[in-house]
Amino acid sequence: xxxxxxxxxxxxxxxxxxGGAVGMLTTRNIIHAAFWLLEVMVAVGGLxxxxxxxxxxxxxxxxxxxxxxxxxxFVIMLTLRRREDSVRPVEVSIGGGILAAVFGVVMYVAIAxxxxxxVEMPAAVPDTAALGELLFTKWALPFEVASLVLLxxxxxxxxxxxxxxx
Amino acid sequence: MAYVALIPLLPAFVFALMAPxxxxxxxxxxxxxxxxxxxxxLLSLAAFAAVWPGGHGGEAAYHASWPIAQVxxxxxxxxxxxxxxxxxxxxxxxxxxxxVQVYSLGYMHRDERVGWYFxxxxxxxxxxxxxxxxxxxxxxYMAWEVMGLCSYxxxxxWHEQEAPRKASQKAFLTTRVGDVGFAIGLAVxxxxxxxxxxxAVLGSAGSWAPGVATAVALLLLFGxxxxxxxxxxxxxxxxxxxxxxxxxxxxxxxxxxxxxxxLVGRALPIFEASGVALTVTMFIGALTALLGGLxxxxxxxxxxxLAYSTISQLGYMFLAIxxxxxxxxxxxxxxxxxxxxxxxxxxxxxxxxxxxxDMREMGGxxxxxxxxxxxxxxxxxxxxxxxxxxxxxxxxxxxxAAWSHGHYVTxxxxxxxAFVTAFYVAxxxxxxxxxxxxxxxxxxxxxxxxxxxxxxxxxxxxIGFSAPFFSEFLGHKGHWxxxxxxxxxxxVALAGLTLGWWAYGRRHLVLNTRxxxxxxxxxxxxxxxxxxxxxxxxxxxxxxYMLATEALARFDRDRVDGVVNGAAALWRRVTEVSWAxxxxxxxxxxxxxxxxxxxxxxxxxxxxxxxxxTYQRYMLGALVLFMLWIVVKGA
Amino acid sequence: MEVGPSAFLGLAAVLFTLGxxxxxxxxxxxMVLMSLELMAVSVNLNMVALSRFVTPTEMTGQFFAIFTMVxxxxxxxxxxxxxxxxxxxxxTVELSSIDSLKG
Lengths: 166, 635, 103
Hints:
The complex is a heterotrimer. Chain A is mainly alpha-helical. Chain A is built from six helices and no strands. Chain A has helices spanning 7-26, 30-50, 54-78, 94-114, 128-136, 140-161. In chain A, helix 1 (7-26) runs antiparallel to helix 2 and helix 2 packs antiparallel against helix 3. The model of chain A has no long low-confidence stretch (mean pLDDT 83). The longest helix of chain B is centred in the last third of the chain and has 75 residues, at 533-607. Chain C has three helices and no strands. Chain C has helices at residues 5-25, 29-54, 60-90. In chain C, helix 2 (29-54) packs antiparallel against helix 3 (60-90). The chains are: A mainly alpha, B mainly alpha, C mainly alpha. Chains A and C meet through helix 1, helix 2, helix 3, helix 4 and helix 5 of A and helix 1, helix 2 and helix 3 of C.
């Protein structure tokens, strides 16, 4: 038996995420941009739910929507001297446009070629408990290394952001 | 036998313990390095005792391996292999390591970063022990690179000064040139055999296509030449003397630079399968032995004399292996490790006392520094190859190997190198320890500096007599020296010593540099310029590279500007012509255009000047191109 | 209406392309970092989707996505700390005025 992804829900979430991304790139206010990014993150979290990756969906909301967005907002606030500084012209880059366009075409060709090798969605997806079990058995070592990476990043971030002159 | 694993692990553990400490705390626990290396020495002695009876005929006494990763269905592993060669090398490394640790406690005690020095020294010892115990080429390569890093850190230990900083970079880059060869060799080896294990690789080497064997052997040799400072990759070693002297004794005399010899010795079946590679090894060794000796003879810096001498002696080892005397080469490695580290430690005491490294500013030190002059003298006689000191035995075996395998040209080159060696040894000793006194407040070194030197001198004195047993231990037939060659080499060495004494030792006839220069003329200049290696590299590699970078930078800087300015100038000229006709309106228009172009040019110019987003753009552009390539190739 | 893997891959490609454009076009360091996050999230979406379709029981892609999240979280933390440090030194977060990355 096969399962299917609900096409309507997918379409809504897809438009929400793309719309968020476009909004982020076109808004003149950098604070608004952070909120547009937040929308993308939440929408992607919803897509994870559609893909029966519940754990990742929760982590996505927690990490990106919760932590990263707040961090972004903090930094934006800290680096603005006046409120008006948050509004800035939208830079247009022709080079970037060409680069992105070429990349988009390449991706389109690639997906058209290989994307539908697997069409049917397999059934029988393990739940979060199974994921947790695998994470601490088969993937235990990478998991620990990942925690080390986070620790190092934490130390590095504190080191860099502390005041000059120690 | 599982304790074998502790031999490299204990010093590594000590490093891991010391590295995260604060500077002050690390300085306080600097003796920890000695504890780690000392424990390794005890375990090495145990391991040696376990291998000792008969040496198992060259078989491994202990072999274990632990898989660490699986790449493409093949297990990569860390493995330990304790066979007679490894057991001997363990002892050599651990003994010299302990001596240098003890010595450094006295030599470095006033340095404010002494703790870090000991930490790196200990990590280095760990890496060298791991290299010796490796059971596959990959692990050997890993240890090899760790040693390169430690060497870099120790050469540049006094990085506040410019010379050590530059020397460390030079050493790192030059050895890296060799390491690239090594890495490619490993890849070819893996493609051929599908394994890095000594057993699998060396066992099958005989059945490789000769071309493949030659390629792999030459690539490995290239790596070894970088590490062991063989011509033409030797240029980094003399500069490396900018580091602390005891570190030079351990790294740049006894162990790391000998790792190249060890590698070639380990990979000998590949070289033998090739044949050509053996000959190349022999000629490079012979060339290096002679050139290194000649260059040593004109240096004034005590440590540089020893550095060139090390290059020359390493050349001797390559020569021996290439000429079919691998055992002789390994034996020379062992004896050289002891007497050359002894000489370096002695040089450290001398430099401490005289406050200079230039031997022209030294003299008469023997009267104040009895222990140093005697131990240094023993090391010097061993280096010159005088009976009964260790260098005599090993040099003799090398000469014997060259002669008995019919390499007569090499034999005479080696003999000439022995003569030069004896000459510069005499020059060094007489210049420093006899003659008029030039230094005030000469003091003998501390006890912790003299004790290791005495131990090394004792080993240097007696170890030569083990020559026949050394061969038997490695599973070959041992023999005492051939009398004809022994007498011949002794005569040559004595002649060299006598010439050195005649030129530099006689009280009133000290031959100064200028008169020697006048007599030897052009030849002396060639030597003084170290056969123009550095200058050649400067002109062939470094300058073109700098020119290219500068040209690129100028291109970046001027291209946009130039075009824009040119356009602006052109516009202006047009304007000047048209001014007469069109007056102010068009004039201003054109000027505006020129100004606009200039502003645009200035903006574009800024893009080229260190802005992070430009680089990011290049990066993403490369990514897109890469993706494009994948898609096109896949289709 | 049935949704196959290409729909997810296509959506991820669109998001990545937008992120790529933003990373190149925008001049504010914070905006560039946001664009990088957008790219990272699209990669994650790819991996989760492929995990669901290709290895539903082993969930390999999901684990990779977890580790990618770790790395991108570390990256964003460090990146923002850097932005703060640069701001403190130069009083600006405009990448166009930060040009000390040259020899």
